[in-house]
Design a protein that fits this description.
Elements: H1 23-28, H2 34-55, H3 57-60, H4 72-100, H5 102-120, H6 126-152, H7 157-175, H8 177-185, E1 192-194, E2 199-201, H9 203-224, H10 229-234, H11 238-253, H12 284-296, H13 305-326, H14 329-342, H15 350-358, H16 380-407, H17 409-426, H18 433-444, H19 450-460, H20 463-494, H21 496-513
Antiparallel strand pairs: 1-2
Helix pairs in contact: 2-6, 2-7, 2-9, 4-5, 4-6, 4-20, 5-6, 5-9, 6-20, 7-16, 7-19, 8-9, 8-16, 13-19, 13-20, 13-21, 14-15, 14-16, 14-18, 16-17, 16-18, 17-18, 17-21, 19-20, 20-21
Length: about 525
């Protein structure tokens, strides 16, 4: 005996107008279940790969100096080059994701990032390292912004922000690899001579490859997952959209795909940006630039200008502090721990300790030898404090994920950015190296607000502009990373205290800007 399943025609679904149905209602019919959890997990891993590839180099450079003799300026450039690769490519990847598909762009790009990362582990000089790290992050950029649109478009309005925050929580868990892997690998004392290419393969080179393995895993998983149903609908592929929805429904409910209670999308429409047709004889490069321009221009129209400028400014400020200072985090933290180890009863401000280090003065007041021993590992306490920061990210993302719809994005931004900004200012007044290190860690914790801003951005734009909008805002964020990392490198020697004054005040300004984030329209066509 078979149980009859009621099939819902489009006419039975709640409508926005008499001639179309709301895709949100159709998407809600897929329910929330295993399929969504898989998408969230993969999305979290993709986000983690971006962080690991851009910031993992911070743990590599200090211990690679025995093999690649780099000046402080060269180290600063290598720390910045990953962000530059992301900045240059963000607009390009956002355009491709909005016109060709989310998954179709991310999967091959992440595989390419893995290949370049592996090659970079064999580099023997500054120029080789900077070139291959640039291309590694050029390709990793494809996932950093596109994935927010991808995960959001598998969820209806009610669940979208929570899904993005859930992916960010998993991203935080993955980010714990930043200090954990160096802790496990760098303190090992081994080396392998590779005569064919004249290098000595040491733990820091292996660490680069280990950091890149998630790129390969994400590439494979994205090839397995389907394209975003909202993107497919936006380009008119209604049958493929329905197929994805049926697959989601089957995985989530355990029922047959044929039991999905919607059997047609003929009256379900998705607003899409129509690209103006260009003459076939036009130069291909010029044609591509014109298409990119046509995809970008709407973001700066009167309708979206406020949202675009606000999201971009807030991302610039948050990344300026979060990643701009993080690339120096292992170095500064290790310096504080070295000082405290040698001078357990000595109290000094963080900038005084950094001044001793930068001027090559040993912490007991004597001049260092002319031949400075190269560093091949970190103090254990450095790893532990770094791990505390990553755990804070995991807890923060989890709490925000559960409370974002209750408290609201504006108040979350106000509370977190204010606390982190004040902590940054206090770094200039605390004389305990341990406590100042913890306040420095809290300052960097402001990065947990990045997905909150991204969730707000995703809510404010339609499908055909969403990936480009997030890409542009994150492009400005990466500009902030470059500005922040170079500012720290310069001011550490000139006026260290300004590093914390500027960073703390900037986050307080960003907290204030959160009040001006527009409210998403309830009936926006997603």
């Amino acid at each position: 005996m078979t149980i009859p399943v009621k099939q819902i025609n489009d006419a039975e679904l709640p409508t926005q107008t008499s001639s179309s149905i709301n895709f949100e209602d159709v998407l809600a019919e897929t329910k929330l279940g295993k399929f969504n959890y898989v998408v969230i997990i993969v999305s979290g891993l993709v986000l983690a790969t971006t962080l690991i590839e851009t910031l993992g180099i911070s743990y590599v450079l200090p211990v690679s100096n025995c093999d690649i003799m780099l000046t402080t300026t060269e180290k600063g450039l290598i720390k910045s080059i990953g962000f530059i690769g992301i900045i240059i490519s963000s607009h390009f990847w956002g355009f491709l994701a909005d016109t060709s598909g989310r998954r179709k762009i991310m999967a091959p790009a992440l595989f390419s990032a893995f290949i370049f990362a592996v090659i970079s582990s064999f580099c023997t000089n500054f120029w080789m390292l900077i070139i291959f790290r640039f291309f590694t992050c050029f390709f990793i950029s494809a996932g950093s912004a596109t994935i927010y649109a991808y995960v959001g478009e598998f969820h209806c309005n009610k669940l979208r922000s929570k899904a993005i925050m859930a992916a960010s929580t998993l991203f935080g868990i993955g980010a714990t690899c930043l200090p954990l892997l160096p802790w496990l690998i760098l303190n090992e004392k081994w080396s392998i001579e590779i005569d064919a290419i004249n290098i000595t393969y040491k733990p820091w080179r292996l660490l680069i490859i280990i950091y890149a393995i998630p790129d390969l895993i994400c590439s494979i998983l994205l090839w397995i997952l389907p394209e975003s149903p909202k993107f497919l609908l936006s380009i008119g592929k209604k049958e493929e959209t329905l197929s994805v929805l049926r697959t989601m429904y089957s995985f989530n409910t355990g029922k047959s795909k044929h039991d999905f209670p919607v059997n047609t999308l003929e009256r379900c429409f998705e607003k899409n940006h129509t690209i103006k047709k260009l003459p076939p004889s036009l130069n291909p490069v010029i044609k591509l630039l014109k298409i990119i321009q046509s995809q970008t221009t709407p973001l700066f129209s009167i309708k979206y200008l406020k949202s675009t400028l606000l999201a971009s400014t807030m991302q610039f400020i948050i990344f300026f502090t979060m990643q701009g200072l993080y690339v120096w985090y292992p170095y500064i933290l290790n310096t504080l721990n070295e000082f405290e180890k040698i001078n357990p009863n000595n109290s000094s401000l963080i900038c005084e300790i950094m001044s001793f280090k930068e001027n090559k003065i040993i912490f007991n007041g004597y001049q260092k030898d002319s031949e400075i021993k190269c560093q091949e590992d970190f103090e254990i306490k450095t790893y532990i404090t770094s791990l505390i920061l990553e755990i804070f990210y995991v807890v923060g993302f989890t709490v925000i994920g559960f409370s974002i719809n209750i408290i609201g994005k504006t108040y979350i931004l106000l509370i977190i950015l204010s606390i982190c900004g004040i902590s940054g200012l206090l770094c200039n007044f605390i004389t305990s190296p341990t406590i100042s290190g913890y306040f420095y860690t809290i300052l960097l914790a402001g990065g947990i607000t990045v997905p909150v801003v991204n969730a707000a951005t995703v809510d404010l734009y339609p499908t055909n502009l969403r990936a480009m909008a997030v890409s542009i805002s994150l492009m400005f964020g990466r500009l902030g990373s470059v500005a922040g990392s170079n500012m720290v490198g310069f001011l550490l020697n000139v006026n260290c205290r300004m590093v914390f004054y500027i960073s703390g005040c900037s986050l307080l300004i960003a907290a204030f800007f959160g009040f001006f984030i527009p409210k998403p329209k309830e009936n926006i066509v997603i």
